[in-house]
Amino acid sequence: MRIQLLTPEHPAQNKSGNGSPVGRDVEALARAYMDHGHEVRISVPLYHAPDLENWNVVAKVRASFLRLEEAQILGGNAIWPHVRLVQHPILERSHPYLDEGGFDHNDNALRFALFCAAALIDCAAEDWIPDVIHAHEWQSGLAILYAKNHLRPMLGDAQLLFSFQDAAFQGLCDASWVDDIGIGREWLNSDGLEFWGRLNLLKSGLVCSHRVTLPSQHYLHDILLDSHGYGLEGMFRSLAAKVCPINPGVDASIWGLPVEIASRPEALLEFKRNARAELVGGSEPLVVFASSFRTGKGIDHVLTLMPDLLKMDVRVGVVGGHGTEEHRHLEAVAANHPERIHLFPKDDATLLKVLKGADLLLLPVAYQPGGVLFARAMSMGTPTLAHRVGAAADQIVGYPKSGADGFLFDDLAPDTLLKHLRKALQLRANQTEWMALCSRAALRNFSWAKVAESYLALLEGGA
Known about the structure:
This protein is of the alpha/beta class. It folds into two domains: 2-249 and 449-460, Rossmann fold, CATH 3.40.50.2000; 259-445, Rossmann fold (3-Layer(aba) Sandwich), CATH 3.40.50. It contains 17 helices and 18 strands. α1 (21-35) crosses α17 (448-460) and α2 (108-125) packs across α3 (141-148). The longest helix has 18 residues, at 108-125.
């Protein structure tokens, strides 16, 4: 089967090959699809001048329904042979989505219409006709609309799958762009792409796809109950039959322990002891916070708990947040308690070391549709104490349930969080029960191979 993935972000967009979480996730999904024996092409917009030393111009394409000159398609990269970059002057910006004032580029509709149309025409021009077109996020939504309508004679009846992470990001544009992007005024209604008098590019993927996926069952439940749908709750209720939650995955080649360690609690105990000793020393439990320092991601709760944590027989690790007011406060606290508070830079290599040595990950986020930090921690044998939201609520089996591999709580009040933290640390004092729980966490399968199987099973269910 041929699968085309369209994504606004991918590691191939820059020489460092790092990329955003969205881009890395799509690349991981592509490799999982390929491991299942499928042909995969990833189409990506290029936001800066191309590096023609590592890329070749493999095609020039133009969509007749767009008021733009042709785009170049770059390919042939040895590191990313399955990736095609769409290059056009209108796409090239210092920030891909926002201007210097922090507002959406006023021509985002035309920019991403160009990306979507060019990516699809590139496939048709090479007679590489996809069986599945899997578009990610609002920037790729028009690809679903074009594949279903404008370009259907070229592409045939591909299965159209649309995935997004958070309905807060909808790609809202001025309604006058409908003529320039070739979709016509007939789409400007509430059942189409209109949203309070504006053009909504997320809706193009929602309305025109055969299937829609979002990152968690709990998030879908919230949306259907008029929470976190950002005005689209009614549309999601009308589309509920084709919307399916699929939890994101982690790179199992990085985030995972050998089975001989993960499956044997005594071996896992020794592994964790050594990792903690190398990281911070001491024998006290190491409680870690590693989420973003943005509003709603939990750092405020950690700071509120700090006086209580300093009274407990624990060490606290904090990853990231450098340059923020909250981190400066933590630096002052750590200066007075250097053996108790440990601050780490934010990068994947450091996070891997921290989660190996940690005893418990704190995840007191107020709202998070997806997120895989808990899965990374569990893969290292580190259970998570998480607010019951998003993918964490879907996947963690909360203590004291049978087969528990973590902890969930429903109320973000400081007293409640502290109570659940103390209960988790009390369980840790029971070494046998605690290490059995950690072993169950380490043996969970959060791999992208499993995620790919979920997508393929969804597609096999029919359009």
